[in-house]
């Protein structure tokens, strides 16, 4: 007979239930009982059967160690990590509600129009970016021509419709240098420029996203640069709130402005990006193309390439 959810005890949230269901399917697909899930960092030891049951039924939150255990056993890493992040977001929201003395189960709905947006955090807190694919092209002077981005978006809250992306061109900080365009998966609603040319781009995804969606939503857009100033020798992407879980970065340089030395970085403090770490340097590419896949990005860290002309 199949295993069923226990009745009587309340489930924490729909996100906990979705993650629990995925973990149960993984375990049952492997033919394991609730007593046979090993602890990855404790050889010969197993998670308690009751704890596994509570997690899979949405009554308690799993640890990250448990998620990684299920993945190493053969679970879908992208799916389970995505569901885990959704669950963590709901857990944090409930905790904030309890600390404020309010209704811990109250739902804060995503803004549907720019008139509902005070700042970009109002938009970003309702989704996370499962993956980000970025292509950056330079001209023969070393000036960036454009960034082309594909953001793979998952909702944390039901009703996500807006997406935010912020950009600067640090070697030419003035209005009119940056311009945003939507390519697929949404439309540009508004681009707001600061006095120093920083661009805040808001996109309408053209549909309402939900944590229950089977597939993530892809938004493709580009940031065009109009400048005569060569780029500073660094491409840096800050993994801020709503930031990416993983990122693929490509940079296409054009002769004669080719890097003499180039390296990748993943740093908490951007000053550390100036110092190549062991094993971070690329072999010099005659065609000027460099790419790297950054996996399991840390919130608030910075990622990218730095080089010497």
Q: Secondary-structure blueprint of this entry?
A:
Elements: H1 14-29, H2 49-56, H3 64-72, H4 77-99, H5 121-124, E1 127-138, E2 144-155, E3 160-167, E4 178-184, E5 187-193, E6 199-209, E7 217-225, E8 234-238, E9 247-252, E10 261-267, E11 289-294, E12 302-308
Parallel strand pairs: 1-9
Antiparallel strand pairs: 1-2, 2-7, 3-6, 4-7, 5-6, 8-12, 9-11, 10-12
Describe this structure in a few short sentences.
Helix content is 19%, strand content 31%. The protein is α+β, with helices and mostly antiparallel strands and 309 residues long.
Tell me the span between the first and last alpha carbons: 67 Å
Count of alpha and pi helical runs: 5
Query: Helix coverage percent of residues?
Result: 10-25%
- Structural category is alpha+beta
- Give the DSSP E fraction (strand runs of 2 or more residues): 25-35%
Uncertain segments of ≥5 residues (pLDDT<50)?
none
| Overall tally of structural domains | 2
Mean pLDDT across all amino acids: 87
Shape: globular
Structural account:
The chain has helices spanning 14-29, 49-56, 64-72, 77-99, 121-124; strands spanning 127-138, 144-155, 160-167, 178-184, 187-193, 199-209, 217-225, 234-238, 247-252, 261-267, 289-294, 302-308. α1 packs antiparallel against α4 and α3 runs antiparallel to α4 (77-99). It starts with 13 loop residues before the first helix and ends with a strand. β5 and β6 form a beta hairpin. Helix content is 19%, strand content 31%. The protein folds into two domains: 14-99, lambda repressor-like DNA-binding domains (434 Repressor (Amino-terminal Domain), Orthogonal Bundle); 114-308, Immunoglobulin-like. It has 309 residues and is of the alpha+beta class. The protein has a six-stranded mixed β-sheet with strand order 4-7-2-1-9-11. The protein has a three-stranded antiparallel β-sheet with strand order 3-6-5, with no helix packed on it. The chain has a three-stranded antiparallel β-sheet with strand order 8-12-10, with no helix packed on it. The chain contains five helices and twelve strands.
């Amino acid at each position: 007979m199949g295993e069923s959810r226990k009745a009587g005890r309340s489930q924490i949230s729909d996100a906990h239930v979705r993650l629990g269901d995925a973990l149960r399917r993984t375990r049952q697909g492997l033919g394991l009982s609730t007593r046979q899930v090993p602890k990855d960092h404790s050889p010969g030891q197993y998670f308690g059967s009751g704890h596994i049951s509570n997690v899979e039924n949405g009554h308690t939150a799993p640890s990250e160690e448990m998620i990684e255990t299920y993945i190493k056993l053969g679970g879908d890493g992208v799916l389970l990590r995505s569901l885990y992040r959704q669950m963590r977001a709901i857990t944090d929201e409930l905790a904030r509600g309890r600390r404020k003395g309010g209704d811990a189960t109250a739902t804060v709905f995503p803004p549907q129009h720019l008139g509902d947006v005070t700042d970009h955090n109002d938009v970003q807190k309702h989704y996370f970016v499962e993956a980000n694919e970025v292509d950056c092209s330079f001209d023969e002077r070393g000036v960036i021509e454009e960034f082309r981005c594909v953001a793979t978006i998952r909702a944390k809250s039901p009703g996500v419709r807006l997406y935010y992306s912020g950009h600067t061109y640090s070697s030419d900080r003035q209005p009119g240098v940056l311009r945003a365009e939507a390519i697929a998966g949404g439309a540009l609603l508004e681009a707001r420029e600061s006095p120093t040319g920083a661009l805040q781009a808001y996109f309408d995804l053209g549909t309402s996203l939900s944590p229950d969606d089977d597939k993530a939503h892809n938004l493709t857009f580009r940031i065009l640069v109009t400048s005569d100033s060569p780029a500073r020798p660094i491409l840096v992407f800050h993994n801020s709130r709503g930031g990416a879980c993983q990122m693929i970065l490509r940079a296409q340089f054009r002769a004669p402005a080719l890097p003499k030395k180039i390296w990748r970085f993943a740093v908490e403090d951007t000053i550390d990006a100036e110092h190549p770490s062991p094993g971070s340097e690329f072999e010099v590419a005659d065609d000027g193309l460099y790419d790297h896949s950054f996996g399991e990005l840390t919130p608030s860290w910075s990622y990218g390439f730095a080089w010497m002309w």
